[in-house]
Design a protein that fits this description.
This protein is an all-alpha fold. The protein is built from eight helices and no strands. Helix 1 runs parallel beside helix 3, helix 5 runs parallel beside helix 7 and helix 6 runs antiparallel to helix 7.
Length: about 180
Amino acid sequence: MTLRPPPLPTLLRRVCLAGVLALAGAAALADEYTEVQRLQRTGQGTEALARADRYIAANPRDPQMRFVKAGLLSAAGRTADAEELLVQLTRDYPELPEPWNNLAVLYAGRGQLDRADEALQAALRINPAYATALENLGDLRVRQAADAYQRARQADGGAAARLAPRIDTLRGMMTPPAKPGG
């Protein structure tokens, strides 16, 4: 007895059914991400975190929900937990630049500009065209320049008049633009 592949119509039905099931599964996943983010946007951070935790318990290797959870933790002021999760993501998924970028944001928020720079450089080694990391690197460099000018002004009081306009210009660049209509 020889095994033969199923007749073409049967095979096509199976392939189509597998495709439909995969799409349904992808839609369910997208719904979970959407729901967690909706809960966060509506001020239900605790429920968003609980839902993310339930999802991660069922899908522990899902990098996207773990990344979303890191954002939830950061928004809740649990930056140490967010950092731990992002560091773990960089180990589990070294091909992803986003965790490095978000680590840089956490480091910069704590004034650890050198660590932020290293994290952004790691993100850009993975994806040199990662626009968000490039923008964050630009913002970081502006902040570093302003800090350097400020230190120079403190070290040499006579340079204050010369450096003040540069510092003011750079500080103005670091101020977020006003929202339209607001």
